[in-house]
Design goal:
Blueprint lengths: L1 H19 L18 E7 L6 H15 L2 E7 L6 H5 L7 E4 L6 H11 L4 E6 L8 H8 L5 E10 L6 H23 L9 E5 L12 H11 L3 E12 L5 H26 L4 H10 L1 H4 L1 H20 L1 H21 L4 H24 L18 H8 L1
Parallel strand pairs: 1-2, 1-4, 2-3, 5-7
Antiparallel strand pairs: 4-6, 5-6
Helix pairs in contact: 1-6, 1-11, 6-13, 7-8, 8-13, 11-12, 12-13
Length: 384
């Protein structure tokens, strides 16, 4: 039973949607009216000096390709050269520099309040995109039942380390599940890499909650669909170090549980299908480490009763040793196993931090390995 709960978010949940929920007829994204609805492009940045110039240059191209678009950037009191770089563009963007760190959500709320537009495009500073990304996303919003359109995120450095390969593989599975959801009822939330929503549906999240999940769940509660735009890909680096990825998973899980706890009174009133999808794809995924740990303990107990405690203890020590060797040597498949265990451990710690410690991660330091220079594959894809 515990093992079934552990695999449900990734295996039996998407299978159940395929078997029991009819896919919507494929409808291509509509052409934008002329002129298109006005657009505000919003981005929050902290220590992003290695990527911020290229990002702003691309956003200027995105805005020019779209038409009636403005660019709004909040610098969350960076400690590096981010502000000096952004100030070069002060005549072309709406730049707000925070006097002290207040967090991404505070910054995004401030930018939305300063803008006036029909649509809002949210993006992260380290995400690479195509020039026509805004136009392609806006076409999906021509359908009045759609409240939000999100780009498909591709990790560009899966061949660097076992951790990067594991993260990329997991995210590919996530994108497959999102495709199934999008075809049948709409996504159950989206990530903050790049998504566009209707301003009329925007509700300012509390500053201590992560904005992308809060906003997408707000759209879901409002009865509008979130679609995965098949024709829009964006690119980002995955974390390359297992401990770095563990800390990232810990933060994300804590933030996600905080949003769940704040919004559950509203979420629980949804219709059966979106509620089933939400519980399956969100809370059960965050609880996966505890399901896996419980299943492992039950299996160990059963094995100990059959083979003896000494043999079970020796095998447990051997397994732990192999995981340590995998982490130290990066030798596959041991390194993949050690990275997976550390990621699950990070998620579990994040859940405990949210539920029992009240931690919020209002501000945090980005993982260094995802802020390196863009990968050639991403740059090449953008230029095509």
């Amino acid at each position: 039973m515990l093992l079934a709960c552990a695999v449900h978010p990734l295996l039996t949940y998407p299978l159940s949607l395929r078997l029991f929920v009819r896919a919507r007829p494929a409808v291509p994204a509509a052409a934008l009216r002329s002129p298109p609805p006005s657009l505000a492009i919003c981005m929050s940045a902290y220590n992003e000096q290695d990527v911020i110039a290229a990002k702003v240059e691309r956003l200027l191209e995105v805005a020019a390709a779209y038409g009636p678009a403005t660019i709004h950037v909040y610098a969350d009191s960076p400690q590096d050269g981010t502000v000096a770089i952004l100030e070069r563009y002060a005549d072309r963007i709406d730049l707000v520099v925070g006097a002290e760190r207040a967090g991404k959500t505070f910054g995004m709320n401030l930018l939305v309040a300063r803008s006036r537009s029909d649509y809002i495009l949210f993006t992260d500073a380290n995400v690479e995109s195509q020039v026509d990304v805004a136009t392609r996303l806006a076409r999906w919003l021509a359908d009045p039942s759609v409240g939000c359109a999100t780009a498909r995120l591709v990790y560009s450095n899966s061949d660097e380390t076992a951790t990067a390969a594991l993260g990329s593989g997991y995210w590919q599975r996530e994108e497959q599940i999102k495709r199934i959801e999008s075809d049948r009822m709409g996504l159950i939330g989206c990530d903050g890499a790049m998504f566009m929503m209707r301003r009329a549906l925007h509700r300012a999240p509390p500053p201590h909650l992560i904005d992308d999940l809060f906003l997408s769940l707000t759209i879901l509660i409002a009865g509008k669909r979130i679609v995965s735009a098949d024709d829009v890909e964006v690119y980002e680096r995955s974390a390359t170090g297992a401990n770095e990825e563990k800390r990232r998973k810990q933060r994300i899980a804590c933030q996600a549980l905080n949003v769940h706890r704040a919004m559950w009174p509203q979420l629980r009133r949804m219709r059966f299908l979106p509620l089933y999808a939400y519980v399956s794809h969100r809370p059960m995924k965050w609880l996966m480490p505890f399901f896996v740990a419980g299943a492992t303990l039950c299996a160990a107990l059963g094995f100990a009763l059959a083979a003896g405690w000494a043999v079970t203890g020796a095998l447990a020590l051997l397994g732990a040793l192999l995981l340590v060797i995998g982490e130290k040597t990066q030798a596959k498949p041991l390194s993949l196993a050690s990275s997976a265990v550390l990621s699950l451990y990070g998620v579990g710690v994040g859940v405990i931090e949210s539920v029992f410690m009240g931690k919020t991660y209002t501000v945090w330091d980005p993982a260094l390995s995802v802020r390196l220079d863009p990968q050639p594959s991403a740059t090449d894809a953008v230029s095509r």
